[in-house]
Amino acid sequence: MLRNPFILGLCAPIYQLVATIAITNDFLMMAIFILCTLGLLGAYVNDFPLLNTLYMNEIAHKTAVSSLLGMLLGFVLFLAFGTGGNEGTDGGMVSAGGKFMATWAILSLPAYPLMVFLVHGVNKRDLDAEEVIRKTKKKNRSGPPIMKRDGF
After folding, report:
1. Which of 56, 72, 131, 151 qualifies as a cystine partner to 51, CB 3.0-4.6 A?
2. Range of the domain at 38
3. In the chain, how many domains are there?
4. Where are the beta strands (DSSP E) in the chain?
5. Distance (Å, rounded) from C-alpha 136 to C-alpha 55?
């Protein structure tokens, strides 16, 4: 399997491309995209397998984390340097494609290095041993927690 962090780091800009489409179209689409990304994080935290291997689930989780942090940092950069107080105008000389590419670049520039860093950390871990530990813990938790009946 290909585990090069620089190649797998490209998952974040590709995911940010979908985010850019959502952001440039409508605020509601952006909110739905962010909620779906939070759903990816929730599925990972609850050990719900979205993909068929643990490594692929880890990469999906790291992509979601890096894209959310990339969006956060991108929006902070946009608010700090982008607006300039001319919100009522028609947008100046920047075309729609230029705005799309600028939005994608602002979102992807912080997300790619973070994704490379996170994938490098995943590659250092022994995921097979972690999977065995998770399965034994899940097997030991066979039912809901109830009171011990010895106390009655």
Report:
1. 56
2. 5-81+94-139
3. 1
4. none
5. 19
